[in-house]
Design brief:
alpha+beta, 6-stranded mixed sheet, 6-stranded antiparallel sheet, 37 helices
Length: 1415
C-alpha cells in the first residue's frame, strides 16, 4: 500500500514540475516581448506582485515556477528570495498552535452583515434633508433585512412562522427608525405600531417639506459662478454636490447637461481651455470633465513658479488681487507666461494675447485698456464694506459703502446687507471654532483687521428660534458683530425692512425681528446659545435687595437660585458680608451628617417645638411648632399659645397634608418634650397607625432636621427684625414669612426646591418683597373718597396665607376708616424696598410694645382673603343702595326699560352692583392665563411698539333668558397687527352646520351616543410662532415692573392668528393619538376599529362626541381633559343655541323655539296674528324707489332670521333669501313681507327638524325658477338633501349668471346642487359608520330636457361658455358615479319651496317630507 502511495506522490510531483516549467516559459515569453524603455522598470514590480500572490494563495508547486523564473530573469532574483522567506514564515505560522497572542493570518475573512449595518447607521433626523436621510436609512434597514416590512401589510391568514418573522422584523424596524429620529420629533411617532404607517407618515410630512426646497436648489445651481481665486476642481465638485441634492429630490439632470454647465461656468482665465474642450467633436461625461480639469489644474499649479497656492477664501468675498507683485519676470522685465508645455527639449512662449490683463486678470483686454487701470489696489466697483485679503503684506483697500464706526464691543448682532461674510469679535460666542492664523478683512473705515479663525455661531432670537451662522470670521478688532444679509438670503431667509423694523422669515415661517438703532438694524436676540443664559449682572445694591427679599438666606443659596434663572445673576465681592447676618447668625460646627435616605413624602415627619425667650407675638403666641417632611423638606409652621396645643395643630396638619397628597403619614420623629410624651398624643398616633419615634434623652442631634430648621428660622427672624427695625413682638409674622421663603429655595445638595417636590409645580420668586419695608397700599374701594389720598403708608409683614396678596401693618393713614396699627391684606401696593419706616422709632417705644403686647389680629387671620379687615366686617359697603329698583310709569304711550349694560372697563365692572361676580370672572380668566403660561414679562425691545389689550365683559344667558354666568375675557387689540410681521396665515376651519346635521342624522340611524364638552379659554392653548409683545393688562400690572411688557408665548383672544393656532394645536393633539381627520371637513375627527369608535366634531370651542358606547366616550373625555382645560357638559342638549331632543325610539329633534320666541319678543311680534305661509306668492316684490323705511331694524330682523333659516328652519329659507336682497333700502312692501314671516313663525314656533334615522340614504332635490319678473334678470336656485328622515342640507339663492331659458336655469341649479352632492358624498366616505362604498347620490330634477342633455354624450345647443362648462361638470359627476339623475314631478319636488312662494297645502306637505314637525 505504501508503494502505491509513493508512486502516486512521485507522479504528482513530476506533473507539478512540468506545469511550472510551462508557466515559466510563458512568463518569460511575455517578458521578452515587452519593449525596452520606460516599461522595463515595471517588470520587477509585476513579478514581485505575482510571486507575492502565489506565495500566499497556492501550494508548494509554486517553488518550481519561482526557480524557472530565476533561470530566465535576473531582475527578480533578490525579490523572489525575499518572497520565499515570507512564504516560509507563513507556513511556519500555520503550523504553530493558536495562542492568544499569535494567530495565523485569516486570508479569506468572513463578511459580517451586522458590522456592515452598524457602519451604515445614519445620523439622527432633525427635520431637514429628509430625502438624504431616507436614502441612508433605507440602505441601513436593508442591510439589517427588515426594510421589507415597510411595504407590506399582512392580509388574511398567514402561517405562524411568517407571522412571527413579520412581528420580529416590525419591532426591529420601529426601534431602528425611532432611534435615528431627533428628540424633538420622535415623540410624535412613538404611538405608531406599524412599520408601513410610520414610514408613510414620515414620507407624507417631511417629503413635501423637502420638495419646497427644490426650487431654491435649482436657483442655486443656476446662479453658481466660478471665481478666480479658488481651485476650479473644488468648485466643480460643489456643482456636482448641488446636482446630487437635486437627484435626491427626484430632479435628475442629464450627465451631458451637467458637464456642459461645468464647462460654461469656468472663470475667465480658463476660457481658452473651455474653448478647446468645446471644439472636440465628442460628448463629455462629468467624469471626463473632472479628469481634464484635474490635469489642467495640476499643470497650472506646477508651472506657477512660486506664484503661491491658490488662496483659500470665503465665498462671496471680494479678494484683493496683487498679481504684479508675485509674478516672475523675464530677462527684459517682461512678464513671462505662466502656462507652457514641453515638447522634446524646446520651450515655446505663449501668445501675448493669452496673457490677459495684468491689473484685473481678465483675458478680454490688456492692461493699457483696463477700466480699473487708475483704481487703487483692492478697489472694485463690486466691493462691499469688507474685503478679504490672503497676502501677508496686509495691503489696504476701500469699499464704496459707509464705514463701520467704532463702538464698544458687545454681544449684539447687526444686519449688514453690504457685508459678504458674517463677522464676530468675541471667541466665546462660537459654538465651534478652527484657528486659521492668516487672512485679513478690510473694514469700511479703511482699517485692516486680522482674521484669527472661522467657526459657527448660534443666534437665539427672542421668538425662540435658533439660526446657525456658518463660516463666521473671528475678527477681534471689529467693534460690531455683523450678520451678512446676502448670506441669509442665499440660505432661504427673507428680510423685510419696513419703517424701523426688520422681520426675518424663512419659507413663510416667522424667525425673528430686529429694530433700527443708530442707523443700523440690531437683531432682537433673547440670548446667545453659547453664553450663560442669564448674563445680566446685578449691582451691589440690587444684590442686597434680593438678599433682603429672600429673608437673608446665604449667598451660596442665592448663587444656586441665579443659576436656575429664578433671580438675576450677581457678582459677589470676595469676603463681602451682610452686617445683619453677621450680627444675628451664630454659626456652629455641624454634627456628622446622617446617611442619605430615599423616602416618599409623608413617610417620615420631623417635628419640634420652640419658643422665643418668652417674647409674645402681637397675637399673644409664645411658641412655634415646626413639621418637616423628610423626603421633600417642606415645612409647616404653627404658632401656639401653650405647648398642649401641639396635638391640636398636628391633627390639623395631618388632615391637610393627607388630603392634599392623598397619602398617609407613617412615622413622626420628635424629642422627648412633654407635648409629645403625653398619652393623648400616643393614643392618636396608635389609632391612625402612625409610628411615633422619640430621640434618646439629651441627644438633640438625633432630631437634627427639626433642630436645624429651628435654628435657620430663628437666624432669619433675627436678621429680618434687625434690618426692618420692627420690635421683637413681630417675630410671629417674620417666622411665617421666612418659612414661606425657605420652602421656595433649594436645599443643600439639591437643585429642586421643597415647594416643587411638594406641589409638583414650578416655583417663581418674582413676587417676593423685602420684609419690613415701606409700602404704599391702595385704599379699598368701599373706603375710597373722591377727595383725599388714595393710599396709606404701611409696613410689609409678609404674604397672605392661601392668597395672592400681602399682609401690611398700617403706620400712617389719613383715611378715617383705616386706623394706624391695624393689619390689612391687599395686592394693590407699591413697595419702597430701601425704606424701613420702623427703624427710626425710639427704643423706648419698642420696649413698651414688647412689654405690653397690643391686642391685634391673630395669626389665624391668614386664612382670610385680601381686602378684608376684621374691623371692617361690620361696616356696610358705601355707595351701593340696598333697595330694589322699580319701574316708573309715564302712561301707555311710553315703553320703559331697565337697561343694565355690560361694563366696558375693569374699573366700571368693579364699581357695578355685580362687582363680586365680575371679580370672580376676572380672577378665573387670569388664573387660566397664568396657569397656561400665556406670556412672560420681559423688557421692551428697542423700537418695539407693544399691542394694547382690554377687558371684555359679557353675561352668558340660558335659552330661557336667565343669566348662566358672568364672563370676562382679556382681549388683545389685534387690529394693530401687521401682516407678514405679527401674523401670516390666519385661516381656521369651522365645522359647517351641514356637517353637524349629518352627524346627528347618522347618530339617529346608528344609535350613537352624543355627549358634549366645552374648552375653557380655547384660544389660549394655541402655540404662538410669531414674536408679539403686549402691554400688561389693566388691574394686573406687576409692582416694580411697570416698564416691562408681556411677550406672548401662546395665543390670546383678539390676535389675528389665534383661531388658527388653536385649531392647529387641537389637530396635532388628536392626530398624535391615532385620530383621523375627515378630508371633507377638517373639524371632524374619528377613531374606529372593531366595530366601535368615536367621532368628534369641533366648532371653535364646542365639541360634540359621537360614540358607540359610553366607555369610549369617557376615555376621550379623559384624554381631552388631560390636554386642555375642559368642561364636561354630559349628554348633549344644546349646541350653538339649538336644543337637541331625543325620543324613546332613538329619533333626534333640532328645536329653536326659544330662539324664535326671543326674536319675536325683541322686535315686538309676540302678540301678532299667525300666518299660514311664510311668503305670499301673489305679491310682487321689487326694489323700492322711495325712501328707506327703518333700514336698521329691518336688517336686524333679517339677520336674526338668517341664522334660523340656515340652522333648523328650511321652510323659511326662500322668504329670507328673497327679503335679504332689499336690506339696503326696504319699503312698505318689504316690511309687509317680513312681517308675514314673523307671523308665520308665531304660528309654527314649536316646529323642529326631526331625524327618525330612516331611510339612511342620502337623496337630493334640485329646482330653479326662471325669470318671474321683468325687473329680475337672474333666476333662483334651490336644492335640498335628506338623510335619516330629515333635511341635512338646503339652499335658496340667486343665480350668478344670466340664463336664457328654463332649461339653462335648471342646468345651473343642478350644477350647484351637484357640487354640494359631491361634498356630502366625500364627507360620508370618510366617516367610519357609513357603509362603503357610498352609492351615487340620487338627484331628483323636474326638467326632463336637462336630464336628457346630461345623459347624452353629444349636444348641439347654442349656449354661452358658462352653460357649457356647467353641463360638462354635471356630466362628469354623473359619469364618475357621484350622482345619478332621475325625473320627479314638480308637485313632489322638495326643492320647489326653495325657489318660489307656494300655497299652504304644498308648504305643509313639503315641510313634513323635510322632517319638520311640531314638538
Amino acid at each position: 500500500m505504501s508503494t502505491d502511495t509513493d508512486r502516486a506522490a512521485a507522479e504528482k510531483a513530476e506533473a507539478d514540475k512540468k506545469a511550472a516549467e510551462d508557466a515559466a516559459a510563458a512568463v518569460t515569453a511575455t517578458a521578452t516581448a515587452w519593449p525596452i524603455g520606460g516599461y522595463t522598470s515595471l517588470i520587477p514590480l509585476v513579478f514581485l506582485s505575482v510571486v507575492a500572490v502565489l506565495a500566499v494563495c497556492v501550494d508548494v508547486s509554486t517553488i518550481c515556477v519561482v526557480h524557472a523564473l530565476l533561470d530566465h530573469n535576473q531582475y527578480v532574483i533578490n525579490a523572489v528570495h525575499v518572497m520565499l522567506m515570507i512564504y516560509s514564515w507563513i507556513n511556519l505560522i500555520e503550523k504553530l498552535p493558536i495562542y492568544s497572542t499569535i494567530q495565523k493570518p485569516n486570508i479569506c475573512r468572513s463578511f459580517s452583515n451586522s458590522g456592515f449595518a452598524a457602519a451604515l447607521k445614519p445620523s439622527p433626523f432633525t427635520g431637514t434633508y429628509f430625502k438624504r436621510w431616507q436614502t441612508k436609512t433605507t440602505l441601513w434597514l436593508t442591510a439589517m433585512n427588515v426594510f421589507w416590512v415597510a411595504g407590506v401589510t399582512p392580509t388574511g391568514t398567514i402561517a405562524p412562522e411568517q407571522e412571527k418573522a413579520f412581528k420580529e422584523a416590525t419591532v426591529v424596524f420601529l426601534g431602528a427608525v425611532l432611534s435615528v429620529i431627533g428628540d424633538k420629533l420622535v415623540d410624535a411617532y412613538l404611538h405608531m405600531r406599524s412599520a408601513k404607517d410610520l414610514w408613510e407618515a414620515l414620507e407624507s410630512k417631511f417629503g413635501a417639506a423637502d420638495a419646497g426646497s427644490e426650487m431654491y436648489i435649482i436657483e442655486q445651481f443656476h446662479d453658481y459662478k466660478m471665481v478666480e481665486n479658488r481651485p476650479v476642481l473644488e468648485q466643480a465638485h460643489e456643482i456636482i454636490c448641488i446636482v446630487k441634492e437635486l437627484e435626491l429630490l427626484k430632479c435628475e439632470l442629464p450627465g451631458k447637461f451637467v458637464a456642459g454647465c461645468i464647462i460654461a461656468k469656468l472663470p475667465n482665465s480658463w476660457r481658452n481651455f473651455a474653448t478647446t474642450l468645446k471644439h472636440q467633436r465628442r460628448e463629455f461625461s462629468v467624469e471626463d470633465v473632472i479628469g481634464h480639469l484635474s490635469v489642467e489644474q495640476n499643470s497650472r499649479a506646477k508651472d506657477s513658479h512660486g506664484k503661491g497656492v491658490e488662496g483659500t477664501s470665503v465665498a462671496n468675498m471680494v479678494h484683493q488681487k496683487n498679481s504684479n507683485s508675485h509674478k516672475p519676470k523675464g530677462k527684459n522685465g517682461v512678464q513671462q507666461s505662466a502656462d507652457f508645455k514641453k515638447k522634446g527639449k524646446k520651450t515655446f512662449k505663449k501668445n501675448k494675447k493669452d496673457e490677459g490683463c495684468f491689473t484685473c486678470g481678465s483675458v478680454e483686454h490688456w492692461a493699457n485698456k483696463c477700466p480699473n487701470k487708475y483704481k487703487k489696489p483692492g478697489q472694485d466697483s463690486k466691493s462691499v464694506n469688507m474685503i478679504v485679503s490672503n497676502n501677508e503684506s496686509g495691503a489696504s483697500g476701500y469699499g464704496n459703502l459707509f464705514a463701520v464706526f467704532s463702538v464698544w464691543p458687545s454681544t449684539d448682532w447687526w444686519v449688514d446687507t453690504g457685508a459678504g461674510v458674517h463677522v464676530c469679535a468675541d471667541i466665546s460666542l462660537f459654538s465651534s471654532y478652527q484657528a486659521t492664523g492668516h487672512g485679513s478683512v478690510l473694514m469700511g473705515n479703511g482699517a485692516s483687521a486680522s482674521v484669527l479663525g472661522v467657526g459657527t455661531v448660534d443666534l437665539k432670537f427672542t421668538s425662540g428660534r435658533i439660526v446657525q451662522l456658518k463660516n463666521v470670521q473671528h475678527v477681534p478688532a471689529i467693534k460690531k458683530n455683523l450678520v451678512s444679509g446676502s448670506l441669509l438670503c442665499r440660505e432661504g431667509f427673507k428680510l423685510v425692512f419696513e419703517s424701523n423694523k426688520l422681520v426675518v422669515t424663512k419659507y413663510g415661517l416667522f424667525v425673528g425681528k430686529g429694530y433700527e438703532c443708530g442707523g443700523m438694524f440690531r437683531l432682537s436676540l433673547a440670548d446667545l446659545c453659547n453664553k450663560v443664559v442669564n448674563n445680566i449682572h446685578l449691582s451691589v445694591n440690587e444684590s442686597e435687595v434680593w438678599h433682603s427679599r429672600l429673608c437673608h438666606i446665604s449667598f451660596g443659596v442665592m448663587t444656586r437660585l441665579a443659576k436656575s434663572n429664578l433671580i438675576p445673576s450677581f457678582t459677589l465681592a470676595k469676603g463681602s458680608k451682610c452686617h445683619s447676618c453677621v450680627q444675628s447668625k451664630q454659626p456652629r460646627k455641624p454634627h456628622k451628617a446622617a446617611e442619605e435616605r430615599h423616602l416618599a413624602p409623608l413617610e417620615l415627619i420631623h417635628s419640634d417645638l420652640c419658643e422665643m425667650n418668652g417674647v409674645l407675638t402681637k397675637g399673644g403666641k409664645k411658641y412655634f411648632m415646626t413639621l418637616i417632611d423628610d423626603s421633600t423638606r417642606y415645612c409647616y409652621v404653627y404658632l401656639l399659645n401653650t405647648k398642649d396645643e401641639a396635638l391640636h395643630y398636628f391633627k390639623i396638619y395631618k388632615a391637610e397634608v393627607e388630603n392634599q397628597l392623598e397619602k398617609k403619614i407613617k412615622r413622626v420623629r420628635s424629642d422627648r418634650g412633654g407635648e409629645y410624651f403625653s398619652s393623648e398624643f400616643d393614643s392618636f398616633c396608635a389609632e391612625h397607625g402612625i409610628i411615633h419615634e422619640r430621640t434618646p434623652p439629651y441627644s438633640p442631634q438625633s432630631n437634627g432636621v427639626a433642630e436645624r430648621k429651628n435654628r435657620t428660622l430663628t437666624d432669619l427672624v433675627n436678621a429680618m427684625l434687625d434690618t426692618s427695625g420692627l420690635s421683637k413682638a413681630w417675630w410671629g409674622e417674620a417666622i411665617m414669612t421666612s418659612c414661606h421663603v425657605l420652602n421656595k429655595v433649594p436645599t443643600k445638595d439639591n437643585e429642586i426646591t421643597p415647594y416643587e417636590k411638594w406641589t409638583k409645580r414650578r416655583t417663581t420668586l418674582s413676587y417676593l418683597r423685602t420684609w419690613g419695608c415701606l409700602a404704599k397700599v391702595n385704599v379699598p374701594i368701599p373706603k375710597k373718597r373722591k377727595l383725599g389720598p388714595k393710599t396709606v403708608d404701611c409696613v410689609n409683614l409678609g404674604y397672605a396665607m392661601n392668597s395672592v396678596g400681602y399682609r401690611f401693618l398700617v403706620v400712617k393713614s389719613e383715611v378715617p376708616d383705616m386706623k394706624v396699627g391695624t393689619i390689612m391684606e391687599s395686592k394693590d401696593a407699591t413697595f419702597f424696598e430701601d425704606i424701613f419706616p420702623m427703624r427710626d422709632v425710639q427704643s423706648t417705644s419698642r420696649q413698651e410694645s414688647e412689654e405690653t403686647p397690643e391686642p391685634a389680629i391673630p395669626m389665624e387671620y391668614y386664612n382670610q382673603t385680601h381686602d378684608e379687615n376684621p374691623e371692617e366686617d361690620n361696616e356696610e359697603t358705601l355707595g351701593r343702595g340696598k333697595r330694589q329698583r322699580t319701574v316708573k310709569t309715564f302712561g301707555d304711550d311710553f315703553f320703559i326699560y331697565l337697561v343694565e349694560d355690560n361694563p366696558t372697563s375693569i374699573s366700571e365692572a368693579y364699581a357695578s352692583p355685580e362687582a363680586d361676580y365680575w371679580k370672580d370672572a376676572v380672577r378665573s380668566e387670569m388664573d387660566s392665563i397664568m396657569a397656561n403660561g400665556t406670556w412672560e414679562l420681559t423688557e421692551r425691545p428697542y423700537g418695539c411698539k407693544p399691542l394694547g389689550c382690554k377687558w371684555v365683559f359679557k353675561k352668558k344667558l340660558r335659552p330661557d333668558g336667565t343669566i348662566e354666568k358672568y364672563k370676562a375675557r382679556l382681549v388683545a387689540k389685534g387690529y394693530a397687527q401687521k401682516e407678514e410681521e405679527d401674523f401670516f396665515d390666519t385661516y381656521s376651519p369651522v365645522a359647517r352646520l351641514t356637517t353637524i346635521r349629518v352627524l346627528l342624522s347618522l347618530a339617529a340611524s346608528h344609535g350613537l351616543l352624543i355627549h358634549q364638552m366645552d374648552v375653557k379659554t380655547a384660544f389660549l392653548n394655541g402655540e404662538l410662532k410669531e414674536e408679539i409683545y403686549m402691554q400688561q393688562p389693566d388691574g394686573f400690572v406687576m409692582d416694580g415692573q411697570e416698564g416691562k411688557v408681556c411677550k406672548l408665548v401662546k395665543s390670546l383672544y383678539g390676535l389675528r392668528q389665534a383661531p388658527k393656532q388653536w385649531h392647529d394645536k387641537f389637530n396635532e393633539t388628536l392626530t398624535s393619538v391615532g385620530f383621523v381627520v375627515n378630508e371633507a371637513d377638517k373639524c371632524v375627527y374619528y377613531r374606529y376599529g372593531g366595530g366601535e369608535g368615536v367621532i368628534l366634531c369641533l366648532y371653535v370651542d364646542d365639541i360634540l362626541i359621537f360614540g358607540t358606547n359610553l366607555k369610549l366616550i369617557e376615555e376621550v373625555k379623559s384624554f381631552l381633559s388631560q390636554n386642555f382645560e375642559m368642561k364636561d357638559l354630559g349628554v348633549a342638549d344644546v349646541i350653538l343655541n339649538i336644543k337637541l331632543l331625543r325620543d324613546d325610539e332613538g329619533g333626534i329633534t333640532l328645536l329653536q323655539s326659544h330662539y324664535v320666541e326671543k326674536v319675536l319678543s325683541r322686535f315686538g311680534y309676540s302678540d301678532c296674528k299667525p300666518s299660514q305661509t311664510p311668503y305670499d306668492s301673489s305679491v310682487l316684490i321689487r326694489k323700492s324707489k322711495g325712501t328707506a323705511i327703518d333700514q336698521l331694524r329691518y336688517s336686524q330682523i333679517v339677520g336674526s332670521l338668517q341664522y334660523l333659516a340656515s340652522a333648523t328652519r328650511p321652510d323659511i329659507a326662500f322668504a329670507i333669501s328673497k327679503l335679504s336682497r332689499f336690506v339696503s333700502k326696504p319699503g312698505d312692501v318689504h316690511w309687509r313681507a317680513l312681517e308675514r314671516v314673523m307671523r308665520y313663525l308665531k304660528g309654527t314656533m314649536n316646529y323642529g327638524l326631526h331625524y327618525t334615522g330612516y331611510p339612511s340614504v342620502l337623496e337630493g332635490y334640485s329646482d330653479a325658477n326662471w325669470i318671474s319678473d321683468a325687473d329680475e334678470m337672474k333666476a333662483t336656485t334651490g336644492y335640498m338633501f335628506t338623510l335619516g328622515g330629515g333635511a341635512v342640507s338646503w339652499k335658496s339663492c340667486k343665480q350668478t349668471i344670466l340664463t336664457r331659458s328654463t332649461m339653462e336655469a335648471e342646468l345651473t341649479a343642478l350644477d350647484t346642487s351637484g357640487g354640494e352632492a359631491e361634498w356630502l358624498r366625500d364627507l360620508l366616505m370618510d366617516l367610519p359608520v357609513v357603509e362603503k362604498p357610498v352609492p351615487a347620490i340620487l338627484m331628483n330634477c323636474d326638467n326632463q330636457t336637462v336630464i336628457v342633455k346630461v345623459k347624452s354624450s353629444k349636444d348641439n345647443m347654442k349656449s354661452n361658455k358658462h352653460i357649457r362648462m356647467r353641463l360638462k361638470a354635471v356630466r362628469k359627476l354623473r359619469n364618475s358615479g357621484v350622482i345619478a339623475l332621475d325625473y320627479i314631478q314638480t308637485a313632489k319636488n322638495l326643492a320647489d319651496p326653495f325657489t318660489k312662494g307656494l300655497s299652504r297645502v304644498v308648504i305643509d306637505s313639503a315641510s313634513r317630507e323635510m322632517g319638520m314637525r311640531p314638538t
